[in-house]
Every structure is written in C-alpha cells, then in structure tokens.
Design brief:
Blueprint (H helix, E strand, L loop, with lengths): L5 E5 L3 H13 L3 E5 L2 H10 L4 E5 L7 H11 L5 E5 L4 H9 L4 E4 L4 H20 L9 E2 L2 E2 L3 H13 L6 E4 L6 H10 L8 E5 L8 H6 L16 H4 L4 E5 L6 H13 L1 E3 L6 E3 L3 E6 L3 H6 L5 H7 L2 E4 L10 H17 L4 E2 L1 H9 L5 H15 L3 E2 L22 H15 L4 H8 L3 H8 L1
Parallel strand pairs: 1-2, 1-3, 3-4, 4-5, 8-13, 8-14, 9-10, 10-13, 15-16
Antiparallel strand pairs: 6-7, 11-12
Helix pairs in contact: 10-12, 13-15, 16-17, 17-18
Length: 438
Amino acid sequence: MLRKENILLVDDDIGILELLQRHLQSMNYHTYKAVSVKEAVRILKDTYIDLLITDIQMPEVDGLQLLKFTNEHYPEMPKLVITGYPSVSGTLEGIKSGAMDYLTKPFTKQELKESVEKAFIHGAEKKKKKRPVPQKEEYGGMIGSSSRFQEVTELIDRVKNNKATVLIQGESGTGKELVARAIHYSGKYARTPFIAVNCGAIPENLQESELFGYVKGAFTGANENRNGFFQAANGGTLFLDEIGTASLAVQTKLLRALQEKEIVKVGSRKVEKVDIRIIAATNANLREDIKNNHFREDLYYRLTVVEIKVPPLRERKDDIALLTDSFLHKYGLEYKDRPLKLSPEAAEILQRYEWPGNVRELENVIQRAIIMADGIVEIKHLPDRLKFQIEFEDETFVSLKKMEKKYIERVLQYCQGNKTKAAEILQIDRKTLRSKLE
C-alpha cells in the first residue's frame, strides 16, 4: 500500500483548517493542523511533512516567517500559500520566501487539488536542479572574479616589481597576508626571502629584540649574538602583520629603518644597512590610533606609500561561489578523498549570509560541513547561525515601552531597514521614528 503524503495545514482560522482537512482527506492525504506558527514549528520538528500549506496573515509570527524558516531548515519540502488578502507584493514575497504556488480565499476543491499536485511536481523538479559550477579565477593563491577583487589585483601588479612600502588594510579574515605573499611571489623578487611576522603575537618587551636582533649581554638571558627578522628578510620582503600593536619604541626604530635603510641591534651601537621591502597590515583604524597617541603619524605616512584596502567578503559576494568550490575541492580531498558538491539551497544561504568573519569564516564553515556530510553538502550540514530563525515572543507580560521597541524592530526588519517605508507602516513621520530609534 502506498504511503499517504503528510500535509501540514497552518491557519489561525479553525473553519478554514477544517475545510482544508476535509478536502485533502477525501483526496487520500494525511493532514496535520496548526493554528499558529509556533505550533507548526513544533510539528515540523517531530513529524516528517511532505507539503506545507500556510496562511500569510496570522498574529504574532506570520506565514512569511514560517516560509523562510522551512525554506532553510526543510528545503526540499514544497510549500503552498493560502491567503484572504491577495496583493502583488504579497504574492512576490511569498514566492520569494519559498512558496510553490499561491491560492486566494475562497477557493474550490478542484483549485486546491490542482495547486497541491502542482506543488508536489515542482518540488520533485527542484530536487533535480543542479547549481552551475563557476569558473575559477586565481591570483597568487587568492580566488575571485568580482570587481572589488580585481581592484586589489591591479594594485598588486603595480607594486610587485618595486620595493615601495605597502600598507594593507582590511577586516580580520579577509586575507591580508595572502595579498602580501602575492605581492612578493608574483614579482621579480620572488626568489628573495619572505618573512611574515605577527606583531600582535610578540610580547611588547620582546618586540624590539625579535625584530632587530640583539648582542650578547644586552639583557638577562642574551647569551649570544642573535639576528632578528630584519636580518632574516634582508634582500627580500618583511611582512609586519598587526602593525598597530607595535610599541612606540619599536615604531621609532621602524621609522628609522624605513628612512635610512639601517637598523641597530639591541645592546649594540653598530649600524647595519638593510635592503628590504616592508609590507605592513592592520585591521585597526590607524588614524584613530594617531589621534589617541598610540601610533606615530610620521610612521603612518612612511608606511602608506601604497595603500591596499582588502574588501570584506560581504562586499565581494560574487566571489563566494568560487571560494566555496575551492574549499569543497581542497577539504573534500583532505577529509573524504574526493571533492564534494554543494546543494543549490545551501549555496543560497552562503550567498545571503553577511560573513562577519570573512573568508576565514567561510573556509571554517566549509571544513565543518565536509566533515558532517557524506556526499552533497546540504543546509543541515551548515551551522545554525547561518540559517533563518524564528523568534517567538515571550509569553510573559512586558512594559509598553519594550513592546513598542520590539514592534518597531520587527517592522524595520520587514522593510529591510527602509525607514521611510517603516514610518508609513507605523503611521508616524521619519523624524519621530528617528527619535524613537535613538
């Protein structure tokens, strides 16, 4: 005997629920009923559902929120929307949120039957769709094809064959060291030393001796002469990451090294000439550090002969698919002995997420997903923080001020931050909305 499909019905109108249930049971479907999104989510977590049929206009959490939730947590499950408030914008929002079709109340039994059958057909077709594989573009170990990525590579091309000082700025995880390595290894100095130093990882009292070296007897424990990173990088490139963490004493010696091309070991008076290219990087606002007397202004201008700003991943989303495919190949071979693929639904989530941790966070997410997956990386293999979440209101009583704040936040979220549209819905002017936000 064939298994009956399980259909979840969600509507705050009991009469509509009973009508839907009678019609669908006569079509040999098995139904579950929920009068709220909260109850629907509980059923979804405990029961395998083949099709969701939901109303849009419901109190507290509406049907659009439920569609977005199920679209990410249950991507292969088809969804059908029924509403008594038809509108073009509502239809588009429902389809965008994952609905297969749209029915307007009142509807006939035949119209319901056709919509349900169409939803199951579309759901089966969706499973067969494959995500197009983007063409890979690589530059010095970096991957991308977006205009922002190309701006960075164009600057690299201009500085790679000279020893101009470069300051690389960007958020944590954007790949600043990759940019520095690309400058060094793609140019004519590729065969010279490349020494990378994380200034933030060196205790402040050791920064000077680690960078410039020291002579025997310079301090307790200095039992021999020792070269520093400057001597090790002589003739090549010294990459100073997190330059903003360098002490003021070290900044003074760095300035001299840049101006005079010479250094002095700790405990020595002998001047040593160095032929070196300095590339520095920071995720801090050095101009603010200058105002707060934490960074030397003259050193800042010496470092910024050429300035390269590495864009965050949220500003180069066209590169997410390329980066993802690269990580799927790399870690698929490392962990599973074969490259893995990504489902279209999971790809959509990666594309939408804002990536506060940038490329490093994306890489970590793909590593974890590959470990959790057996074949194709799907939504269920991604961390929950990437997925759409429904937040239910606390059932305890709250103050009117707190309730107003929550409602304004909800309207702003619905309007995607558009204050003019939010003010229209709230029936207040923008000035009043601005004051409430403050």
